[in-house]
Design brief:
single chain, alpha/beta, Rossmann fold, 5-stranded parallel β-sheet, two-stranded antiparallel ribbon, 13% strand
């Protein structure tokens, strides 16, 4: 590995799809999702908790964090790695302090109402199974409660949505390339070129009809085309919830 870039953004907004497409390029290594950001963040937040580091041994801390980024992919012989995790947006300042350069993050976004619809569709498709959200909410599980669970201040959608806003306020807008899920699915060739231009990499001819997707649980592999389905959010959320979350879009000027 010579260079590391990042994929992040909102959940169910195409991060895995883009990783699967980019890894077709023999110069690029990318995976569905990794634990690198979690490990990186744990070390960063817990370093000073050890008495031996109470004097803020900053140089050693930076050295360990640097080694994590390079060591995680030491076995990869492709020159460019693009790590995929929703947490990277919140770690831009630390990443830049460690890498000593500006980072580049492919930031996948999607209408929050569509994201919540995606979660609700998964539940309705398998009504017998109890999802994690149902186990947490128990008898209080409802469409509105599930939407708030995901989009509330501690939910995966709410947290990542807030992290993107924070990064913009902190002045990191130019580090992020916003890629809208629907625009990508409708125009994958032009949107992929945007990604290559952003990363300053030579363009590559991708096969958008035969994408190798690996199931993270079973490890099984499927060859699929880009799915361009259109979903009626009101059908799954109701009009009130749709109107509530359809307003939470702030990135249109940058896509």
């Amino acid at each position: 590995m010579d260079t590391i870039h990042f994929i992040s953004g909102l959940p169910r907004s195409g991060t895995r799809l883009i990783a699967d497409i980019l890894k077709q390029n023999p110069e690029i290594h990318s995976e569905n999702v990794t634990s690198l950001s979690n490990i990186f963040n744990l070390v960063n937040h817990n370093w000073e908790r050890f008495d031996q580091n109470s004097f803020r041994n900053r140089q050693s801390k930076v050295g360990v964090l640097t080694a994590l980024l390079s060591g995680y992919y030491q076995h990869i012989d492709r020159p460019v790695v693009i790590d995929n995790n929703l947490q990277w947006i919140s770690l831009i300042p630390v990443l830049e302090a460690v890498l000593q350069r500006e980072v580049k993050i492919i930031t996948c976004v999607r209408n929050p109402a569509e994201i919540l619809t995606s979660y609700e569709r998964s539940k309705r498709a398998d009504p017998v199974s109890q999802f994690n959200v149902d186990l947490l909410l128990k008898e209080n599980s409802s469409i509105a409660a599930r939407a708030y669970h995901y989009a509330g201040p501690d939910g995966i959608l709410g947290t990542t949505h807030r992290n993107i806003k924070d990064a913009i306020i902190m002045g990191y807008l130019d580090r992020m390339l916003f890629v809208d899920y629907n625009r990508f699915c409708n125009s994958p060739k032009s949107q992929t070129k945007r990604i290559y231009d952003f990363l300053k990499l030579p363009n590559y001819t991708h096969d958008f009809e035969n994408i190798n997707q690996i199931d993270p649980v079973s490890g099984s592999s499927n060859i699929v085309p880009i799915n361009k389905t259109t979903v009626n959010c009101v059908e799954f959320l109701g009009l009130d919830l749709y109107e509530q979350y359809n307003r939470e879009i702030f990135w249109n000027a940058w896509i």
